[in-house]
Write a structure and sequence with these properties.
398 residues, alpha+beta, three-stranded antiparallel sheet, 15 helices, 10 strands, 14% strand
Length: 398
């Protein structure tokens, strides 16, 4: 992360963007930047909160805060899917809801409003600041509450359902979202990240009395990871398909006091099984005791909201609950990936993760030091141990 604001985040740029958004000429009298991203919270970009003092054509003054997301060059050059998601796909989803004739659907918000998405400066986004109207991120160390879990699952069901309608209306949209980043297994720095973290999980399991056989199974699954993760994201095997967020964890979700959830960071989105988002969210973001008590309630709640949204949008070929359960079970290897490779890193404290960045994923010394801390969090240890036992009982680790 850097405290230096790049020159292209200029007054001229903000005046142009805000004037276009408001439909009138706006002058900026003052601007202040604050870096709000930190290692452990964000590995892909610098994120700023920008406070602007504005003057409109009538000489009336006001203040506005915006969020700027400026991708690191290592990520920007990959040209992931977020630009198309904001410029085309999310707009398409919003249009479907707004023209549905249903006032409740028209109010649904899947993401912050995006004032600018461009690759003119690498890859840059300017968003409305939802924290100004009461939204906030949950705790990545503790996990989300039961109430926040239900809010997320409802919004996820609505997101998935609306995407099914969008694809039916505009099949060519699939070309923008069709492949998972794991289509060919872990690649480049993600391979170092995934395999290194799973190796750390194996070392932790080896240190536990009675987990020797589990450690061996996890090692076997690490060796077969590429093949098994490719099967999980294989869209040819799906009972039905939806647009997955594909990185749905607590830091990519904003909550408000009115039980609403809004999603952030659509870089990895792809069209595939709904089990991907459900398994990843439940295993990275929900407190273990809540998942243990509510897992099937969550899945039923998801299905009821999926079905209700599809019916409201007059979608005819509605999947059955049994098809949903089959998809969740078929993609359970994504749960293994979530708890063994992702969750431990997500739960590092700010102090533990202060050296983390995209370049660090390829630095053996930094990664080795970081991995010594991965299982210091009690939530990580308990979630890993319980989840591996559950997955083993289901035959996922065979």
């Amino acid at each position: 992360m850097t405290d230096t604001v790049p020159e292209y985040l200029s007054v001229d740029l903000f005046e142009k963007v805000i004037s276009n958004y408001r439909g009138e000429s706006i002058k900026i009298k003052d601007v202040k930047f604050k870096v709000i991203s930190s290692n452990g919270d964000n590995y892909c970009s610098n994120v700023y909160r920008v406070c602007l003092n504005l003057e409109d054509e009538r000489k009336e003054q006001s203040t506005l805060t915006l969020i700027v997301k400026d991708l690191f060059k290592e990520i920007a050059h990959l040209q992931l899917k977020e630009l198309d998601m904001y410029n085309k796909v999310l707009k398409g989803l919003s249009d479907i809801l707004k023209t549905s004739g249903n006032d409740d659907l028209a109010k649904i918000k899947f993401s912050p409003y995006c004032l600018l998405a461009t690759r003119e400066f690498g890859e840059l986004y300017i968003f409305e600041d939802l924290t100004a109207i009461g939204y906030e991120i949950g705790s990545r160390w503790q996990g989300v509450s039961e109430k926040q879990s239900y809010s997320t699952i409802k919004k996820l069901a609505q997101f998935h359902a609306t995407s099914m309608v969008l694809v039916e209306k505009n099949p060519s949209i699939i070309d923008l979202i069709k492949d998972s980043h794991f289509k060919n297994g872990p690649q480049d720095f993600s391979a170092n990240f995934v395999y290194g973290n799973i190796e750390s999980a194996i070392k932790y399991l080896d240190s536990l009395e009675g987990f020797e056989d589990m450690a061996k199974k996890v090692r076997d699954n690490c060796n077969n990871f590429s093949k098994k993760i490719q099967a999980a994201v294989n869209t040819d095997l799906c009972q039905f398909k939806v647009l997955n967020h594909a990185d749905l964890w607590v830091n990519n979700i904003l909550f408000n006091s009115e039980d609403d959830a809004v999603f952030l960071d659509y870089q990895l989105s792809f069209y595939g099984s709904p089990g991907i988002d459900l398994n990843f969210f439940l295993h990275t973001s929900v407190r273990l005791q809540i998942v243990q008590s509510n897992r099937y309630k969550f899945l039923r709640y998801y299905y009821n909201n999926l079905k209700l949204t599809l019916k409201s949008l007059k979608y005819e070929n509605i999947p059955t609950f049994e098809q949903l359960i089959e998809e969740v079970r078929r993609t359970e290897f994504y749960s293994f990936y979530a708890v063994a490779a992702e969750l431990p890193l997500m739960c590092l404290t700010p102090e533990q993760s202060k050296t983390m960045s995209v370049p660090a994923f390829s630095n053996p010394e930094i990664m080795e030091q970081m991995r010594m801390e991965l299982f210091s969090n009690e939530r990580v240890r308990k979630t890993l141990e319980y989840s591996l036992d559950r997955l083993n009982e289901l035959g996922v680790l065979d």
